[in-house]
């Protein structure tokens, strides 16, 4: 049990004193970047899906 207490005390000390926390503005900028990149990625994948769907529908109608 003493090892668990030591571990928890050292972990808390590390979180409070040794970890460098990002500033709110940096986190906000990163979140916006992820949101924009995810939206662009989703639009590209959606466009590719639409092109394949339309192409296959045309192909099956023709044959």
Automatic annotation (TrEMBL):
<comment type="similarity">
    <text>Belongs to the SecE/SEC61-gamma family.</text>
</comment>
<keyword id="KW-1003">Cell membrane</keyword>
<dbReference type="GO" id="GO:0005886">
    <property type="term" value="C:plasma membrane"/>
</dbReference>
<keyword id="KW-0653">Protein transport</keyword>
<dbReference type="GO" id="GO:0043952">
    <property type="term" value="P:protein transport by the Sec complex"/>
</dbReference>
<keyword id="KW-0813">Transport</keyword>
<comment type="function">
    <text>Essential subunit of the Sec protein translocation channel SecYEG. Clamps together the 2 halves of SecY. May contact the channel plug during translocation.</text>
</comment>
<protein>
    <recommendedName>
        <fullName>Protein translocase subunit SecE</fullName>
    </recommendedName>
</protein>
<dbReference type="GO" id="GO:0006605">
    <property type="term" value="P:protein targeting"/>
</dbReference>
<keyword id="KW-1133">Transmembrane helix</keyword>
<comment type="subunit">
    <text>Component of the Sec protein translocase complex. Heterotrimer consisting of SecY, SecE and SecG subunits. The heterotrimers can form oligomers, although 1 heterotrimer is thought to be able to translocate proteins. Interacts with the ribosome. Interacts with SecDF, and other proteins may be involved. Interacts with SecA.</text>
</comment>
<dbReference type="GO" id="GO:0065002">
    <property type="term" value="P:intracellular protein transmembrane transport"/>
</dbReference>
<dbReference type="InterPro" id="IPR005807">
    <property type="entry name" value="SecE_bac"/>
</dbReference>
<keyword id="KW-0472">Membrane</keyword>
<dbReference type="InterPro" id="IPR001901">
    <property type="entry name" value="Translocase_SecE/Sec61-g"/>
</dbReference>
<dbReference type="InterPro" id="IPR038379">
    <property type="entry name" value="SecE_sf"/>
</dbReference>
<dbReference type="GO" id="GO:0008320">
    <property type="term" value="F:protein transmembrane transporter activity"/>
</dbReference>
<keyword id="KW-0811">Translocation</keyword>
<feature type="transmembrane region" description="Helical">
    <location>
        <begin position="31"/>
        <end position="52"/>
    </location>
</feature>
<dbReference type="GO" id="GO:0009306">
    <property type="term" value="P:protein secretion"/>
</dbReference>
<keyword id="KW-0812">Transmembrane</keyword>
<dbReference type="Pfam" id="PF00584">
    <property type="entry name" value="SecE"/>
</dbReference>
